[in-house]
Amino acid sequence: MSTTNDDNKAAAAQTVKPAGKPAAKKAPAKSARRRSREAALQGLYQWLITGDEVGAIDAHMREQDGFGKLDKAHYDALLNGCIVEAADLDAVLARHVDRKTTELSPIEHGVLMIGAYELKHCMDIPYRVAINEAVELAKAFGGTDGHKYVNGVLDRAAADLRPQEVAARGR
Length: 171
Hints:
Elements: H1 5-15, H2 32-50, H3 54-62, H4 72-84, H5 86-94, H6 106-121, H7 127-141, H8 146-161, H9 163-170
Helix pairs in contact: 2-3, 2-4, 2-6, 4-6, 5-6, 6-7, 6-8, 7-8, 8-9
């Protein structure tokens, strides 16, 4: 079987990389903790919008594809902890936001709750990591510049929730 000139050109085009264009980098795989935060955010969003019971929200989240790939203990702590401590977390956030937390977008509100919860309870996570993870959630799910707002609020909240760690970093 003979190949035509067009077949040869097509084969050559497939094997030659265009000059000047770097190969696309593959995004790193998400960690189990990042997946936990994403699932908790989705559950918090549902709770903030509908006011559904945490058990129903949790059951719905556990049915989602990829749930088995997340850190279930961290997800449970975030979803349940943020809902149980919503008033306390909002009180912490209220000192650093420019409006009532109920007036925030539900995505930014949920992200801020997760960030504040991790700052308050997850001492194994450095405060800068907790803030960065919240910023990444806001970038992925929030409005265009919502991540900047989240960063500013949580940076100020960290000074309240982890004063020694923040002070040590400042030295």
